[in-house]
Amino acid sequence: MWLSDLQKIGVGLTAFGVFFMALGVMLLFDAGLMAIGNILFLCGIGAIIGPKSTLVFFTRREKIRGTVCFLGGIFLVLSKFPVFGFVLEVFGFLNLFGDFFPVVFGFMRRLPIIGPVLSHPAISRFMPRESRTRV
């Protein structure tokens, strides 16, 4: 799968967004770092799939609850309520992107080092059922 230059930039922005978000959480919910992480994450998603597809994804009828929670959490983080904002963001993130987790786990199971670890019987019990089938 070949990525355009804009999509490569989007992957970088998304990765930096996740990094700053994690760093903000590790530094006792630093609102500034979490806000930077949120902005970079949203810009990265927009650059990866395009602005129109991003708008369509976030405004789909079945995703509206996740969108409201995710954007509400970002608003709370920007309003200097990082703990409540983060909890609301995580809930919204799981509602928005929860459908992709089986695909991600299926991909990770095919990786050289991570695959055998995820295939261990103790761990495979907790993985989504779709990821246990061959992709």
How would you portray this structure in words?
This protein is mainly α and 135 residues long. Helices cover 73% and strands 0% of the residues. The protein is built from eight helices and no strands. It starts with a helix and ends in an 11-residue tail after the last helix. 22% of the residues are buried. Residues 131-135 have low confidence and may be disordered.
What brief labels describe this structure?
135 residues, disordered C terminus, mainly alpha
Helix content: over 70%
Main β-sheet, in a few words? none
For the termini, the CA-CA separation is 16 Å
Mean pLDDT: 90
The sequence of SSEs as H and E is HHHHHHHH
Low-pLDDT runs:
131-135
- Write down how many β-strands occur, each being a DSSP E stretch of 2 or more residues: 0
In terms of DSSP E residues, the strand content is: under 5%
Computed over alpha carbons, the radius of gyration is: 16 Å
| Category from helices, strands and their pairing | mainly alpha
Helical segment count: 8
Indicate the overall shape: globular
Mind sketching the topology for me?
Elements: H1 5-26, H2 31-49, H3 51-58, H4 64-78, H5 82-97, H6 101-109, H7 114-118, H8 121-124
Helix pairs in contact: 1-2, 2-3, 4-5
